[in-house]
Amino acid sequence: HGEYDNWIKLEKPQPGAGILFRCLNYPIHVGICVNNRKFLHIERSKNSVIVDNWKWRNRIEGYYIHHSLL
Fold it and tell me: Considering only CA atoms, which of 68, 44, 40, 70 is closest in space to residue 54?
């Protein structure tokens, strides 16, 4: 129990939802849905926010929203 209990897994992306990505088989990278075609995330090597076009789609662990936002 704890803070993780406050997050709800969604069936599909929705604007403002968090996205959890697997890297090296671990869910360690996050992004935020802009719409069903784009998301925001930060690439450390570029040191900036990137608007991406879902090229990471095969690494998506899930879409999540905090219960207080519902």
Answer: 40
Q: For residue 27, give the H/E element and its range.
A: strand 26-33
**d(C-alpha 43, C-alpha 66), whole Å:** 24
Rounded to whole angstroms, the Cα distance separating 54 from 36 reads 9
Match 């719409």 to its residue by tokens.
35
- The backbone torsions φ and ψ at residue 58, rounded to the nearest 5 degrees and listed phi first, read -70, -5
pLDDT in tens, 7-43: 899 998 899 999 988 888 887 888 888 887 788 877 7
